[in-house]
Design a protein that fits this description.
Elements (H helix, E strand, L loop, with lengths): L13 E4 L6 H12 L3 E3 H9 L3 H24 L5 E3 L8 H12 L4 E6 L2 H8 L7 H4 L6 H22 L2 E4 L5 H11 L2
Parallel strand pairs: 1-3, 1-4, 2-3, 4-5
Bound molecules: shikimate-3-phosphate.
Length: 188
């Protein structure tokens, strides 16, 4: 479906899930604009809640503190009729997976997994160095090192994304517009 097609107003929360660099925020913002629906970026909500950047939150309070806030903002977002970009690690906590699955099983939300290969993700992640502590927390990695780190994390997470998803979209060879169109087609 072309992303330019007219759409019904959004009637439920739509969670975009997937690994860092899969396009959840950029495509999500675009889809929300098309639908004239609110857009919520959970990473931004976490930064607002913590009063600091995610990199600083990881460095000063650690990943557990970050994950606690992530669960709070995720639970709150499930009550909003909006396009919601989650962080790539949201599925690593059982409590978060339960929130996503409960909402989608009741038909009260949609969960869309934007899937991509490690190579694609590594290329996209490297365009924004220093913002993702789990990839380049202590040092800046070269492309091969980034791809290896992505592969390692993705191997553990891929089954979790699949477990939570109502729809899966393969984004590797898709333009921004095509991904947006595919997301819109899952919402009818
Ligand atoms: C994380 C992904 C990041 C952010 C944090 C942790 C992860 O979000 O929430 O750095 O564990 O995969 P993006 O997927 O938007 O980069």
């Amino acid at each position: 479906m072309p992303a330019t097609m007219l759409m019904k107003p959004l009637s439920r929360p739509v969670f975009l899930i997937g690994f860092m660099g899969c396009g959840k925020s950029s495509v999500g913002r675009f889809v929300a604009r098309r639908l004239k629906a609110p857009f919520v970026d959970l990473d931004t909500c976490i930064e607002e809640h913590a009063g600091m950047s995610i990199a600083k939150l990881f460095a000063t309070q650690g990943e557990d503190a970050f994950r606690c806030i992530e669960t709070q903002v995720l639970a709150k977002s499930a009550r909003q009729i909006a396009i919601i970009a989650t962080g790539g690690g949201v599925v690593t906590r059982e409590q978060n997976r339960a929130i996503l699955k409960q909402a989608s099983q009741a038909g009260a939300a949609s969960v869309v997994y934007l899937r991509a290969r490690p190579e694609t993700l590594a290329t996209r992640i490297r365009r924004q160095p220093g913002v993702r502590p789990l990839i380049d927390g202590q040092s800046t990695l070269n492309h091969a090192q980034t791809a290896a780190r992505v592969q390692e994390l993705l191997a553990a997470r891929a089954p979790l994304y699949e477990e939570c998803a109502d729809s899966i979209i393969d984004t590797d060879n898709c333009s921004f517009d095509e991904i947006a169109g595919l997301i819109l087609s899952t919402l009818n």
